[in-house]
Design a protein that fits this description.
The protein is α/β, with parallel strands linked by helices. Helix content is 42%, strand content 15%. It has eight helices and seven strands. A seven-stranded parallel β-sheet has the order 3-2-1-4-5-6-7, with helices on both faces. β5, α5 and β6 form a beta-alpha-beta unit. α4 runs parallel beside α5. It is globular, with a radius of gyration of 17 Å.
């Protein structure tokens, strides 16, 4: 497991209060990283951090709202003061406040989707970059979606943000990988998270999975962890600017 050893690394996980972010926070800690669990709900992040520490691992909790850029500075300053470094950044927070026909998308829902899903990761990555470069580099993983390469019905704006996030991943990789910061994206498929709760309740969803997924079920958040561990580890030292699809064989 030496290739996946993260001992001594400091990892910031945005959107760590539940779902994929929570699972990734546990996975990083289990491989030796000190994990900073963040979201807009501090109490929920404290619980995740407590659960990690109960296993004898290292975790902290802080408030960070991806869509509120001012909160980024406070978290990064606190990490620099306490640890002096940042090695791993997981941009996981996302929202999809509107599910329905594209032509009926409310302007407020559109703006909120872009604010959290795209503006937030762009500025958090931008603000974190000097700290990551300061100690020789690190790894960024942006949690996108297969909607970014294969748009879904009734969530056009959401898919647009994920497509842009994939492009952002490639742009940051092009600009910073030669300086030591690798940047990649995780593209989950249909995963059992709160964000997907609206999709789960759609009549005929099991028929959809039977007809479109090679593994004919939803993913669990824990099934995304292995891909992230690879991307942030030394095993991925020549892996950058890529989108790793983990979707049960939907996009083939």
């Amino acid at each position: 497991m030496a290739r996946f050893d993260l001992t001594g690394k400091v990892a910031l996980v945005a959107g760590a209060s539940r779902g994929i972010g929570e699972a990734v926070a546990h996975g990083l800690a289990e491989h030796g990283a000190t994990v900073i669990c963040t979201s807009r709900k501090l109490e929920a992040c404290e619980k995740v951090a407590d659960d990690i520490r109960a296993k004898g691992l290292k975790a902290e909790a802080m408030t960070l709202h991806l869509g509120e850029i001012d909160t980024h500075d406070d978290v990064l300053a606190a990490i620099e003061k306490a640890h002096g470094r940042l090695d791993i950044l997981i941009n996981n927070g996302a929202t999809n406040p509107y599910f329905g026909p594209a032509h009926e998308t409310p302007v407020k829902a559109y703006d909120k989707t872009f604010e959290v899903n795209l503006k937030g990761p762009f500025y958090l990555t931008s603000k974190a970059m000097p700290l990551m470069l300061k100690d020789g580099g690190g790894s960024v993983v942006n949690v996108a979606s297969i909607d970014g390469i294969q748009p879904g019905e009734n969530r056009v704006a959401y898919g647009m943000t994920k497509a842009a996030l994939i492009n952002m991943t490639k742009g940051f990789a092009k600009e910073y990988s030669h300086k030591g910061v690798r940047v990649n994206a995780l593209l989950p498929g249909f995963t059992d998270t709160k964000l997907a709760s609206g999709l789960k309740s759609i009549p005929g969803m099991q028929d959809y999975m039977d007809n479109n997924l090679s593994i004919k079920r939803m993913a669990q958040p824990e099934e995304m962890v292995g891909a992230v561990l690879f991307m942030v580890s030394d095993s991925a030292s020549y892996f950058t600017g890529q989108g790793m699809v983990v979707d049960g064989g939907s996009v083939i």
